[in-house]
Specification:
By secondary structure, this protein is mostly helical. The chain has two helices and no strands.
Length: 79
């Protein structure tokens, strides 16, 4: 029978899952932003301006998601 105590590894898994979800929401926001710019049929320079703003946020969201998944894996493997 398992104990009801919460360990640091359980918290690591839940914190990692939360970070991954936050990163996934950020990626979804980036997709929506670029899709709406594409639907607006902007000229080349305006589209480049939108993409210049979205790419760093996209990379940050991807990084956050990867760090969260690594935390989940570490929490599961060490528990």
């Amino acid at each position: 029978m398992e104990s009801a105590d919460t360990t640091i590894f359980d918290l690591l898994v839940w914190l990692g899952a939360s970070l991954s979800l936050l990163g996934l929401l950020g990626l979804g926001w980036c997709i929506i932003k670029v899709s709406s710019a594409k639907r607006a049929q902007l000229d080349d320079e305006a589209m480049r301006a939108v993409l210049r703003k979205v790419v760093p946020l996209n990379m940050g969201a991807l990084f956050l998601s990867v760090i969260g998944l690594m935390m989940v894996i570490m929490g599961i493997s060490l528990a």
